[in-house]
Amino acid sequence: MSKICWVVSAILLIVTALLSFRVKRYMGELKEKDAQIQAERARIDSLTAEIQKLQSQMSQLETFIKATAAKPQVKPSEQPEVEKLGLTRYEKQILDLIVNNPDIDKLVKFKPTLPGRSWICSSPLNVRFLSEDKVLIIFEDGLISGALIAEITDPNDITKWKVLWQTLLE
Length: 170
Prior knowledge:
Blueprint (H helix, E strand, L loop, with lengths): L1 H68 L10 H4 L5 H10 L5 H4 L19 E5 L2 E7 L4 E7 L10 E8 L1
Antiparallel strand pairs: 1-2, 2-3, 3-4
């Protein structure tokens, strides 16, 4: 009987040792996971602070943009040098449609010389009315200029105009 007690005691001792080893291993893993969670929380707090800082900057920029956008913008037809040309109301309407309109790019068959650029007529002085329904437009892409003569088929939509002639100026 004493041998059985010794065997049972030895088995209990071995099981206890194995359980103790596993518990220690799981406790180590839990501490490691806890450290990872704490590090993630610190990272989240850091990112939250950065987001709040960026939101503050964005709010300041929005205020600045609203303040600068509130300034009245002068239409191309209302610029002092254009007033001297004595244009009719219709011509001023067409002028406002042409100047700084990126849709000029759709009328020009040539590709801009600079990648990512487009053709544009940047000044009201680059527009000449040849007749009531024909206009000469000098356009540029920042490096090279060109000219085109277009027939005004729709005074409200430049993309519907018919191009009669165009060339690049070198």
